[in-house]
Amino acid sequence: MKTAIVIGGGIAGCSTAYALAQRGSKVTLIERHENLAQEASGNPLAVLYPKFNAKADASSQLALHGFQFTLKLLRQLTKNVSFFNACGQIQLVFNIKEQTKQNALLQAEYLQKYSKLFRAVTSAEASEIAGITLNLDGLYLPQAGWVKPALLCKNLVNSPLITVVTASNVLSINKSQNLWRVSHANGALEAENVVICSANDIKQFPQCQSAVIIPVRGQVNFFTANTKSSPLKTIICSDHYLSPAVDSVHSIGTTFAPNDANANLSAIDTLVNLKALKQISPEIFVHINANQTQGRVAWRSQTLDYMPLAGQLLDETKLRNNPPRYNAKPADLPWLSGLYVNAGHGSKGMITAPICGELIANLITNNPLHIEKRLASRMNPSRFLLRELGLKQLAQSLYD
User: Fold this and answer.
1) Sheet with 84-85, edge to edge strand ranges
2) pLDDT digits (tens, 9 = 90+) for 129-174
3) At a CB cut-off of 8 Å and minimum separation 6, what does 243 contact?
4) H or E segment at 139?
5) Which helix (H) or strand (E) holds 11?
6) Straight-line distance from the first to the last Cα atom of the chain, in angstroms, rounded to the nearest whole number
7) Residue 179 and residue 251: Cα distance in Å, rounded?
8) pTM summary value
9) Which residues contact 57 (CB under 8 A, 6 or more apart)?
């Protein structure tokens, strides 16, 4: 039986632990907070919908595969009705740029065979679907929905093969003969494999210094449902999103502020979210008390190319001291055997983190990859280091 330690108890860590346990691995998950899903995964509600580009680029391929994978995962979990609702989502045509984008998506050749994913709707059709008056046309994604991250994480780690250690910060990761030794605040553990899923905190480990990542502050606001907002049945998006009432509360967000360390609620960000609410539904906006809105701040982890960090790490020191030729074989690179990362998901964690956990579990257990090899290479956490060393072509073919 393979053994693994997963560091981080958000959606990335819990879905990775789940994927490993599904393959018979014994997993210990270490979370520094007292409960799971406390950082970027800590919002009471996460929205689940894919964002496509008109071209079939890596981002669109990941969005497509990741959305379908997460939906399948959610539907197969027991008690999923308590944390998942496929309520649908409507992306409004809120400006000319969005109209152009939606027109291009409707014509995109690679999406034609996925016609059930979305369709164009008029404002009248959108209003009928949503249950409230909408003044703009848009795209309707019937399979999209909302998720309660904390309950999902709890369900994912509910396995006899998964041991959860909370309230213990990881201090170091070191190789001890053929095992990785993870020292944490309450002791030390050893395992064949370690998967670092601690978002922006991956940079605390020397092995992850080449994994370029940016903390992005986001603020979500909440308001209590009223007679005008309660009929809302779907997620509505402009450049922000508005959720249906879940447990009698709507979510509206989210702001985007790279490298902003302000942990307090921002009055300016609250106004930005409320402005988005007014654009989506003026009728709901005038029926809320802006002074009574609540909020939450968290930091997403974003990469320079907006693709996640998912896969096995390379030894940066060995790679810099002895750079390989451009035509080197991937197997000859100085891999850190048994050390992996699942992070850098930005605002798309619910779409991308589970499928990246599946990728890592397949790599660890030597199972066939479930996604294209080039797409897997595009997510490798050491890709920026390879590009820096002039090995861009090699970075694109790590699994060939």
Assistant:
1) 46-48, 145-147, 84-85
2) 999 999 999 999 999 999 999 999 999 999 999 999 999 999 999 9
3) 45, 47, 146, 235, 250, 251, 252
4) strand 138-141
5) helix 11-22
6) 27
7) 44
8) 0.96
9) none
